[in-house]
Known about the structure:
Number of helices: 11
Order of helices and strands: HHHHHHHHHHH
Number of strands: 0
Oligomer: single chain
Mean pLDDT: 78
Largest sheet: none
Amino acid sequence: MTNPSVSGSLPALCPDAVRAMSSPMRKRIKTGHQSAVYTLIVLAVIVIIGCAPYKKLSREEMLCAGGSIDYSVYGNAPFLFWNNLTDIEIATLLQADSARAGNPDALLALALFASGNVRDRESYRLYSSPVRSFVVKTKPVLDTIKSFREKGRTLYASLCREFYDKSFMKNELSGYRTQQSQLSELLRNKTYNCISSALLCLIVFRFFDFNVSG
């Protein structure tokens, strides 16, 4: 007689054997059957959908499917992005290598791009101009300082007065918001977290040739 535990096969359960099982065991067998059936149904649906013939939609059909969103312009950039990118976003990403090398202009553009709400040239000009104005205004002052350490201290103090709330110097957490990682929002309403404040410092210090990284 074959031993099921050795051969790996299971004998068919006769009705008397099923009735002799405990109620929890019968429920587990029933649940297992239901799960197997559900899995097969899901797999069948996936196969059917996957085998459906592909149809390239026209611009009108895309607009109809997405309401006011014109999906025909999606995937328009030379990057692995599905979402449609604007010209300023494409130009910013094409400068990624320059940003990695520490170019402050490219770093500023990339940080504003990462904010997610700076998507056109006018917005970019609006958010970047305060940083550029600060650099122009502060450079003559720093040029008179010989000590590298003192120059760094002066730059940081000037940066804090310019971009943070007046209470920042007494309480550095006065404008702190845990989820506020956008450089654009720091420049707009002076709120920040460790990420957005670090981005601002890194970019500004790069404009003055400090070899900073983060």
